[in-house]
Amino acid sequence: MTSSPLAPAWLGHPADANVLPAPIWSRGAVREASGEIAFAGVPASALAREFGTPLYVVDEADARTRARDIRDAFADAAGRAGTTAKIYYAGKAFLSIEVARWMTEEGLAVDACSGGELAVALAAGVDPDRIGLHGNNKSLAEIDRAVAAGVGAIVIDSAIEIERIAAAAARHGRVQPVRVRVNSGVHAHTHDFLATAHEDQKFGVRLDQAEEFAAAIRSYPELRLLGLHCHIGSQIFGSDGFAESAARLLEAHALLLRGGEVPELNLGGGFGIAYTVADDPTPVPELAESIVAAVAGECARLGIPVPTLAFEPGRSIIGTAGATLYEVGTIKDVLVSVPGESGEAVDLVRKYVSVDGGMSDNVRPALYGADYSVRIASRTSDADPALVRIAGKHCESGDIVVYADYLPGDVEPGDLVAVPATGAYCWSLSSNYNHVGRPAVVAVRDGHARVIVRRETEADLLSRDAAYPGAQP
Ligand SMILES: *Cc1c(COP(=O)(O)O)cnc(C)c1O
User: Fold this and answer.
1) Is residue 1 very low, low, confident or very high in pLDDT (cuts 50, 70, 90)?
2) pLDDT tens-digit map of 113-151
3) Where on this chain does substrate bind (predicted)?
4) Mean pLDDT for all residues in the chain
5) Is 313 flagged in the annotation as binding?
6) Looking at the 3D structure of the chain, how many domains does it have?
């Protein structure tokens, strides 16, 4: 069969809409002989029965393996360039105490970008020295708490923060290590990067202000300059943007070296993952090798030592480890008119499959048109694949979870469907829209599942409503 004219160009008609394309699914997700998808040995139906739907399922071994692989890839590449690499897990992708512990056990540091994320990392027992704090508008309380806790790095995002952090360090009798977030003018997304002199965005300071910032930081004995920081974007597939950005940063880094030590360079996160069969991110070892080689080459050209390198991956560690399970509730065939070959309107069917969650548990499609994939999780089927759109249950027509994929045409109410690659920026961006509680997060490992963040209940939602008799003040 040919693909539906309603399908995007990248989405071919599959021979079999039951298969799980490897790059999109966690390593522990397999079709069992029963036809069900099992996650680390736990069948989808068992997960739905025990924990309900919608449900975030995180494959612990997969997340740990990706963390370790990234750590090793950068350690190896850095070693060949005569330096070391430090990997921070970007907690904003998904953070819970349990996940912070996995990352710590795999040798990663943790990045927090708010007091709340910092609180989770501290509650997880992460060594404060291995926590970084970000944010373009950290409150005085957040700065104070971070300094008091002894975090290993605070990333300065504006001039006013220099004195704020120095004051907190003086209060707590500490020397606070800091980085300066600069804007390299390189902004990358997926296959392309855009390189400009200046970028119209809220993060960081101009690269040509780096020396001024370094001098101001060095004027405070309570501050220690670690180096520059830059994050060029997210869901990036190649290394070119990183290499270009690093080259620009190293010019400034070399200037800073004239005024004192600059031990590190932090190139941020943003390594891409596959959400659909159209995505082909560069494998991490290759990415690590080319980024580090670009840095080493530039350092040689500038005649400076290769600094300790820091990276902050989030999505590439936790994204593919997660999937969301939903139950199908209603289905409708919607007629869509498209221009036919001779210009006349032709009606085509788009099958809207509505599930029991939506933009409250995954806002990325509504927020920036992100594409996802879907499979029936509770069974296989020989029915001809049909183009579907997975819609949520919210009161917004933009409440779409999967814009386009093929499912067996006999998909029906009661089927469980799984949307892969939802480990990053789904739970962390979730909301209570329509007073829908956030789903539970369960970790699966070796045939066992356990809740790592419980489901939000109506009682949770009502308990914050001050007029409710049982409200918690
Ligand atoms: C979001 C962010 C990251 C993580 O990005 P991923 O795409 O999840 O790897 C790292 N560093 C900074 C400063 C960020 O804002």
Assistant:
1) low
2) 999 999 999 999 999 999 999 999 999 999 999 999 999
3) 315, 364, 368, 396, 425
4) 96
5) yes
6) 2
- Any domain includes 149: yes
Residue bearing the CA closest to ligand 1, atom 10: 269
Q: Would you give the DSSP letter of residue 13? A: P
396 marked as part of a ligand binding site: yes
Q: Could you confirm whether 113 is annotated as catalytic?
A: no
Ligand 1 center to 89 CA (angstroms) = 9
Provide the pairing of β-strand 440-445 with 448-453: antiparallel
Residue 188 Cα to ligand 1 middle (Å): 12
For residue 88, give the DSSP letter: E
CA distances from 320 to 24, 83, 316 (A): 6, 29, 7
**Shared-domain flag, residues 141 and 278:** yes
CA dihedral 250→252→257→262, nearest 10 degrees, is -70
End residue of a domain, out of 296, 318, 340: 318
pLDDT tens digits, 156-181: 999 999 999 999 999 999 999 999 99
Give the Cα separation of 388 and 410 in Å (integer).
11
Report if pTM > 0.90: yes
406 is in an annotated binding site: no
Q: Which residues line ligand 1 (CB under 6 A)?
A: 90, 92-93, 134, 231, 234, 268-271, 312-316, 424
67 Cα: distance to centroid of ligand 1 (angstroms) = 15
Q: Angle at Cα 229 formed by Cα 258 and Cα 293, nearest 5°?
A: 80
In a domain, 24, yes or no: no
